[in-house]
Amino acid sequence: MDRIKHHRVWFAILSLIIILLSICLRISHYKSIDYIGTDEIVYREQAKIIAKNTNGGVSSLVNKYNSEQDLWKFPPPSRIGYLHTVSFLMNLLDRYDEHPARMLSIAADILTMIFLVIIGMQFFNRCAVLYALLFFAVSPMGLTVSVHGYQDALLGLLGVSMLYISLIISFRRKSLLLYLLLSLIGMYSITIKEFGILIYSYSILIALINLIFKEKDYKNASILAIIYFSSIIATVFLLAGMLGGLTNLVGIIYNVKTTLSKNYYAAVWQSGPWYLFIRGFWILSPLSYAMFAFSVLNISLINRKKKKGSINLGPIYSILLFILLCIISAILPYSQNYRYLSSIYIFYYLIAGMGFYFIIDYIRGMIRQKPIRVFLLSAFVLTVIFCSSIDFNRFNYIRISYKAYDLPVAIINDLRYRMDYIDEQIR
């Protein structure tokens, strides 16, 4: 019992240290950024107009956007959930620059780490949590998203919370309050960014599959399905009402779609063969890429040997979500941007963390001599820590040397060749 308590204390201490490290990294880089992305400028100006003109701010943005074709290549003003949140912070802090949006991103990222620990402890294990915390703390994807004024950090937090609530409904307890909470977060996520409907729908699907096929609870499944479809309809009418009518909403969607192929940034930097998008994860985090693949293989083999009722479905649903969003981003035109996948960052690192756990478990089980076992475990852990520093150097290169403020597939794959060239020059 004392040994278990001892492990819990060390886990809590290490988790706290890594979370504090993560916060320090985000705040220090937030303060040192001296450039701003185009999308950040657009969101800042849109939120500023709403903040200073509460009554007619949205309508003026929509009318101007739909009437001027040059604006169609920029983010639309239909993402009113994010714009209103940022405009509220602008008025609260009395600052009308990009900093309120960036502070919101950091806060959302920190809360996402809290969810990482909660989800990891309930559906994974301590080894996976510590690995995921460390690599999320230094993640080039997580750091880039958290220190810029994009809505993706907030969307990531909402996506993680939706999947967590869905898992609770599926495996812990069912209640109307949880259904309503999930639907409210889902509605809010759709107003943050259109991508939110994918995470929301997937979270609902997980819960429905378990209610219908595992528990045969058709009553609760029907209630949840009704709430879901009602929330989607309500979100459409909410957006239409705030944008000045359904015509304006449809107009924005049509205008964005028709000009997307003419958008140089989207067409050149966010497009390419699907395999380049998958390879980008290797470029950004080589060890996590390998650990993720090793973990998926082990989870598949382990679950094949288990009885149906004893399978831990949490990691499996996480893997399926990761694969689903990667496929959608890879095949959807002009959507190959790692920033758009913020909702699955922690699941990517948690699954990779399971690979870390499997290797430790194999070393413990296969090596009988204690000195050799301790040496191998220590060497492996130190190697993992060293590899986390490689991930952080990737972020520094993106931010400092490359001067990139975004994560489109073409930049990440070009980054590989540039870093290989630099390494050759050093050698």
Written description of the protein model:
This protein is an all-alpha fold and 427 residues long. It has one domain. Helix 7 crosses helix 18, helix 10 runs antiparallel to helix 11 and helix 15 packs across helix 17. The longest helix is centred in the last third of the chain and has 32 residues. The C terminus is likely disordered.
SSE-based structural type: mainly alpha
Number of helices: 19
Share in helix: over 70%
Measured by DSSP, the beta-strand proportion falls in under 5%
Global geometry: globular
Whole-number tally of structural domains? 1
What is the terminal separation in angstroms? 52 Å
Average predicted confidence as pLDDT: 88
Order of helices and strands: HHHHHHHHHHHHHHHHHHH
What profile does the largest beta sheet have?
none
Specify Rg, calculated over alpha carbons: 22 Å
Unreliable stretches covering 5 or more consecutive residues: 419-427
**How many individual β-strands?**
0
Q: Which structural traits does this protein have?
A:
427 residues; disordered C terminus
Task: Chart the SSEs and their pairings.
Blueprint: H1 2-32, H2 38-52, H3 57-67, H4 80-93, H5 99-123, H6 126-137, H7 140-146, H8 152-171, H9 176-192, H10 196-214, H11 218-242, H12 246-259, H13 264-269, H14 274-284, H15 286-305, H16 313-331, H17 345-366, H18 370-401, H19 409-426
Helix pairs in contact: 1-5, 1-6, 2-4, 3-12, 4-9, 5-6, 5-8, 6-17, 7-18, 8-9, 8-10, 9-10, 9-11, 10-11, 11-12, 14-15, 14-16, 14-19, 15-17, 16-17
